[in-house]
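Illustration 12: Phosphotransferase system HPr (HPr) family protein.
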Amino acid sequence: MIEKEIVVKNPHGLHARPAAVFVQKAAAFPCKITISKNGKEVDAKSILAVMSLGIEPNEAILLRADGEGEEEALIELAKICEDTEM
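Figure caption equivalent — predicted structure in token form:
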């Protein structure tokens, strides 16, 4: 298992479209992926779970991945969170 703390730079946080893109990318990986914010951890492959965290711009989240492709998964998901153009 690996984890990475990320500050969400997307101007919309992880709401609506950015959350959908994030979940689609997470679902493409076979490993288990979770997001934690303020002690609440959810499945990164569930749009409702991700949106329930209410992740705003400039908030820190913790991504965890466990299993095949975990390193690549965190790299790709971090890119989405740090994208300021989406």
